[in-house]
Write a structure and sequence with these properties.
The structure holds two protein chains of two kinds. Chain A has strands spanning 5-7, 10-14, 19-24, 31-37, 43-50, 55-58, 61-66, 71-76, 85-93, 96-99, 103-108. By secondary structure, chain A is an all-beta fold. In chain A, strands 2, 4, 5, 9, 10 and 11 form a six-stranded mixed β-sheet that branches. Chain A has a five-stranded antiparallel β-sheet with strand order 1-3-8-7-6, with no helix packed on it. Chain B is mainly β. Chain B is built from no helices and eleven strands. Classes of the chains: A mainly beta, B mainly beta. At the A-B interface, β4, β5, β9 and β10 of A face β5, β9 and β10 of B.
């Protein structure tokens, strides 16, 4: 069963706008990771945030983690057409990752 | 460049005909994973190897098996593919268990069952 649930399931924005997606999970975690998947391709790791961290940045990406609410958010600032993809959160507990259902992001030029 | 390689990228098989998908890595990672991903769904872990130790997920059908002959290679064998096994199969590696580590994914093999 999925550990993470993502919201929204789909998001359509104009180039230059920010995109925010959320992930909620149910059990304790070691870390939470975000991945991007372009259509028909493998997953690319974006960012890992540990359970004792609250916020992390990587380029145009900002991730927050609230362990009390068991939730995380991914913000993509100044989106580009190349950011069009599906974004998955994945919770790490023990020896494996469990993926959420993903958010499909469409960035229109 | 160090990477995770999957071959073939596309595989067509017939209903009931055994098929093998392969994965290799140049990262020298201890852990190798196999995921199944159906259209518009989350990747679902089938099993993983930590070195030579095999770990099967409880809900992985017996029809799916795996082999890891050495550190670099891992194979997914589907003994009798059904139409419901058509999916993208993703191989991933991590240096150690993902409690502290990132997973690195290959490009995937898309399996079509006729």
């Amino acid at each position: 069963s999925q550990q993470g649930e993502e919201d929204p399931q789909a998001l359509s924005i104009q180039e230059g706008e920010n995109a925010t997606m959320n992930c909620s999970y149910k059990t304790s975690i070691n870390n939470l990771q975000w991945y991007r998947q372009n259509s028909g391709r493998g997953l690319v790791h974006l960012i890992l945030i540990r359970s004792n961290e609250r916020e992390k940045h990587s380029g145009r990406l900002r991730v927050t983690l609230d362990t009390s609410k068991k939730s995380s958010s991914l913000l993509i600032t100044a989106s580009r057409a190349a950011d069009t993809a599906s974004y998955f959160c994945a919770t790490a507990a023990g020896n494996k990752l469990t993926f959420g259902g993903g958010t499909r992001v469409l960035v229109k030029p | 460049d160090a990477m995770v390689i999957q071959n073939p990228r596309y595989q067509v098989t017939q209903f009931g005909k055994p098929v093998t998908l392969s994965c290799s890595q140049t990262l020298n990672h201890n852990v190798m994973y196999w995921y199944q991903q159906k259209s518009s769904q989350a990747p679902k872990l089938l099993f993983h190897y930590y070195d030579k130790d095999f770990n099967n997920e409880a809900d992985t059908p017996d029809n799916f098996q795996s082999r890891r002959p050495n550190t670099s290679f891992c194979f997914l064998d589907i003994r009798s593919p059904g139409l419901g096994d058509a999916a993208m199969y993703l191989c991933a590696t991590s240096r150690d268990y993902v409690g502290a580590e990132t997973q690195y994914f290959g490009p995937g093999t898309r399996l079509l069952v006729l």
